[in-house]
Every structure is written in structure tokens, then in C-alpha cells.
Amino acid sequence: MKKFENLISLAVKSEFSDVHIAGGYPVVFRHHGTIRAEPDLIWTHEEIDRLVYDLLDKRQLQMLRSRHSVDFAKTVHFTRLRINVFNSVRGLALAVRLLPGKVPTFEDLNLHPSLEEITKLPSGLVLICGPTGQGKTTTIAALIERINQTRSVHIITLEDPIEYRYYSKRAFVEQRELGAHMVTFEQGLLDALRQDPDVVVVGELRERGTMRLTLNAAEGGNLVIATLHATTPEDAIYRICNAFPLEGQDEVRFQMASTLRWIIVQNLVYQEGLRYRLPVLAILKNTSPVRGIIRDNKLYQLESTIQMGKADGMFTKERYLKEFLETRNDFTPPVKVFQPSEEVSRERIYESPVMDEDTAVPAPAMRAMRTVAETKMTEETLSISTDDEPLVISDSPPLQDIIDRLK
Q1: Is 89 exposed, middle or buried (CB count within 10 Å of its CB: 0-12, 13-18, 19+)?
Q2: In the prediction, which pLDDT does 73 show?
Q3: Which domain holds residue 133?
Q4: Into how many domains does the chain fold?
């Protein structure tokens, strides 16, 4: 583990974005997009096996054995890492992504400034959509961090895995990871609704139960921000509605019409002139005409509504590219924003032994529990009201006397 910590420290100082470790092969780094191997850094197969044992908990180890790979996030040497451990012809191997220790801002991500409006919403549903790897998680992180800085609210995030860690500022932020802190997103949402939230983040809408609870949470007065795999705003609404039986879809559409606030579809598009990718967004806002379209199930009209919704701050991807991105020349290069750095949050990551079924109750705790129980048994008195006088049980009263008096 010490060797791995030194490797991560070197990667941070050298601004490497990724590290690849395979048995008997030089460690491979990615630096500003280019792959290069370091012939002097070689891990043996046995060293990698020991490292995997150190990095993974029992649940993750079980997943690795059953799936032959496992994906998780971990803080090592004050640096947040996303790690994929997988089995290969070289034995176990690791692909490590070094994450920035500071949550990027809207300006860092070259996002439209109107997204600031989302952070001021008291309630409702906000969907961040797009394919895998298009920056949805980072956009949500920027939204949550701005709320954290500006509002006194309780934020609960349900993630898979936790990539950015938040340090509570004006807000109180609690983060839960799928598998480690909750069994399913549905269970996490059920828990969150009992934990006095103001803002809830749902890492991904996949199952019908999760979608139902998400709509209920938004309807109940919470601001809910969730991700969904969808290519257009119309597709996003279809995916949610079609997850339910036909007889229940009208109710879902009415819920969507009343709770939806924004749908953002995000894609990262390479710009030849800049030589890096920029986020291109399609933005739908739930105006009165949009609510009518959703209720009446005329979703095919959404595209034209977005085209005509310029005054309401809506964008098609084509107009976003032309009217926002092509009119700017002061973009922030991703290499500057996403270079690895030590985490701002230094809060301790604690795994309670109470959650480990194989861990026995510590002896001092067991003695304390016995002492409390014995004290209650010997000293506590219990008064039971009867028609005549109160019945007092103390120390060791004769059993027959108690039975007679109860009669």
C-alpha cells in the first residue's frame, strides 16, 4: 500500500490523469492525453494481489470474484481516485483515474450561466441526461457545490460511486454510495425521505421503483436532481413514462407535468480550433405550454417548443452551439480544471464495524450493556394503574402477590 501511495503522490505532482498497473509490465501513465510507460516502475503479480487485498473491502472483493471486475472510488494520500480492478491475461490489473480534489464551477466547465437558476429552486425535478462519459456527474457536482455555498439546506446524495466529496459549508451534505451505504437506489431514496432532506441527488434513474420515489420526492417539496440515459428531452420523458404499466402512465405524466423543472441533455463535442471538448446542451424548461404537452401526451411537440422557447431560456443543441459557444472565446481548458489535486475535504472516511456481521461487540461495550441492563432490573420500579391503588414492582416481589392484585 505504501508503494501505491508513493505512486499516486508522483502522479499528482506530475499531473498524470490516469495510471495503469499490470503484473510484470511497466506502469503506464496518461499525461495530457498521451500514454507513456515507465520502464523503471514494475509491479510483480504478487504485489498487485496484495494491493488489491488492501484496497478492497469484503463486499468489493466478493464482487470482483463473481464479476471478474469491480469499480469503486477511494481516497488515497488525500487524492480521490476512481479505480477499476479487473482480471486479465496478466492476472489482476488496475486502471486508476485521478480526480480533481476541488469541485469544478460552472465557469470551469464552460457551462451556460443560466444553470445558476437551478441552484435556487426550492423544489421540483431536474434531469441531467446524456450517454455515459459526457460529464453528467461533474455538472451535478457543480450544481451541488453552488447550493452548498449559498443555501442553508440538507443535501443527501445517492451515488455510484462517490467521485467528488463535499465539505459542508452553508449546507449540510451527506453522501451515500451504492453497495457500501445502501443496497439499491430505491432503498436509498426511501431512507432519504425519512432523513429530513431539502435536496436529493439520485445517481441514476434505472428502475421503476426509483423513478416512482423520485417523482414522489419532488412532489413532496424536495429539489431532486437525477441523471438519466436519454438523447433528447422527449426521450427522457418517454423513458420515465414507459417504465410504468400502460394503466399508470397517465398518472406519471401528470406527476411529471407538475414536478419537472428542467431537462438538460449534455454531450461533450470536440472543437477543432480549441483541441478539446466542450459541453453542448439541449435545455428544456417546464413552462405552461410544456406542461400541457406532457399532460396531453403530445411529446412530439417538444422539439418545436424548445426551438420557439428562446425567450424562456431554452436551447436546442444547434442553437446552443451557435448562440452560446460560438460567441465566446474565453473557455477554460479541461486540462486546467481536471488535473489531479489533493482533496479539499479532509473529513475522515469511516467504516463502522457495527455494519460488519463478523465483528463481535467489543468487550467494554458488552460490559456496559450488561451493567445498564442489570441496573434497570434491580433499581427500576414499574407503576401499573389499577382501580384501587398503583401496583409497584421493585426488587423481587412474590409472584403470587402480583397475580392476586392484578385479578
Answers
A1: exposed
A2: 85
A3: 113-337
A4: 3
